[in-house]
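In response to reviewer comment 3 from the previous cycle, which asked for concrete evidence that the modeling workflow produces usable outputs, we include below a single protein chain processed end to end. The sequence was submitted unchanged, and the resulting structure tokens are shown without manual editing.
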Amino acid sequence: MTPGSTPKVSICICTYQRPGWLSHCLESLRPSYSSGHRPEIIVVDNDPAASAADVVRAFSLDGEIQVRYVHEPARNISTARNTALREASAEWIAFIDDDEFASPGWLGNLIATAERHDAAVALGPVVPAYGANVPAWVTRGAFFERRRHLTGTIVGWHDARTGNALFRKSLVASMTAPFSESFGLTGGEDSEFFRRLEQQGKKMVWCDEAIVYEHVPAERATTGWMLRRSFRTRQTWTRVTLASSAGGGVGRLASIAALAAARLVISVPMALLLAPISPSKSFRELRTLANRAGKLAALLGHSYEEY
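The workflow returned the following structure tokens.
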């Protein structure tokens, strides 16, 4: 990018106490920079201790890629994302998480797909990158796999996450706080954001070639961590659903509660019956228990704070 010119894409990374993974993420963006896109890169550090400052400084020392570092000490992932958007100057905004790293063609594929399909948003797959000590039953069970689609498929908010997303900055130009700070400690702020875009009729398409990889270390590949994540994700799903204009009402509340309770009744005996036959299938039922419990907890007003 020549001095004084406006970049086409602003790549935004929000980070919190993950200096090693952040360094890996930044290194993975070098192909995007050298391929001709030459984006600006913005790192928003949500750690009060500013633990990412040295990582960004070291990465920028070679002079090839300048990364803008912004310290946002208020502990809230939505605040960090909104800060990144305020700092971004490009036509397109790309988000990638600090515990992820991009495939070489990631950014180019996202841009090409969005422009080819005249879409406001392009989304890509997040593929697990398992650590060396992750148990085999976890990888075989594909518990960290997410569904994928053919490139060009129109998708909705259920498939949208800021771990791999590109959207036009014009979508947020008139928004004071695009990411709701009420989700800033629980997660789900990206789901709520894309849900609103979907309700506004914004076109979102899938780009299956725009792959990013998410670190899955052994400490995440545990039953406790995965059950907590299932509980949290379904809790935020329920909050997002109810927060939308179409999600309110006593009937909707009753429907979510009834379906969640019914699935709980089924999953308890299924988990017990499957345990001696197929531990993997038994654990799937336990995850179902956790996410349905998350739904019911959200209906009762409980919020699990992950951040």
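The beta strands are 9-15, 40-45, 67-71, 92-96, 100-102, 121-123, 126-130, 164-168, 204-206, 212-216. We consider this sufficient to address the reviewer's concern, and the full set will be provided in the supplementary archive.
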